[in-house]
Amino acid sequence: MCFYGVLGVLLVGLVVGECIYLLDYKGNKNIVRKNLANGKLLTLAAEENGSDSDVEISGQVTESDARPIIIERYLAKYKSPLLPYAKEIFELSEAYGFEYYWIVAIAQQESNLCKKIPEDSHNCWGYGINSSGTLRFENYDLALKAYASYLKIQYFDKGLNTPELIMKKYCPHSNGSWARGVQQFIDEMENGV
């Protein structure tokens, strides 16, 4: 246990040191923001005190959750109609206890992030779309809430928590391409691509 504590302190020290090194000390106010591995954001600032050699590093290190921003940037990059719902997507994933990227990655796989959906359906996930009909929602807000609940109850609560396991039930006739696509989109979000 002590080992992990020391390791954590060393890791934070390394990141802070890296950020300080990356600061441009010539400017008046410089801010460096660095995403940490756990989705948190580290912010460091430096201020010049008058002479070239006198730079004060503010001791404030703040953290915030980067996951809502990751969702927002990803949806903006692909010009998704879901962009106004980025915060809601994150909040629903938190409320239902699953990773932030599932709703977006499956929407990317199924509908190019809601750009190719049945008319007036607001259904970005192929959810309830089959030979007997199409599940339609009045708006994206209702669709997101219904889909988040569906994922939780029908997949995550049953231990189906990887693209491969989800595919076996969600898209059983896939040759594996569905799972590979979803994983690719998860990786894009996680790596900021």
Description:
The chain has 193 residues and is mostly helical. It folds into 2 domains: 2-57, no CATH class; 67-191, Orthogonal Bundle (Lysozyme), CATH 1.10.530. It has helices spanning 2-22, 67-77, 86-96, 102-111, 140-154, 163-170, 177-191; strands spanning 29-35, 41-48, 55-57, 129-130, 133-134. A 3-stranded antiparallel beta sheet has the order 1-2-3, with helices on one face. Strands 4-5 form a two-stranded antiparallel sheet. Strand 4 (129-130) and strand 5 (133-134) form a beta hairpin. The chain starts with a helix and ends with a helix. Residues 2-38, 40-48 and 57-62 have low confidence and may be disordered.
Offer a concise description of the structure.
With 193 residues, the chain is mainly alpha-helical.
Task: Detail the topology: elements first, then pairings.
Blueprint: H1 2-22, E1 29-35, E2 41-48, E3 55-57, H2 67-77, H3 86-96, H4 102-111, E4 129-130, E5 133-134, H5 140-154, H6 163-170, H7 177-191
Antiparallel strand pairs: 1-2, 2-3, 4-5
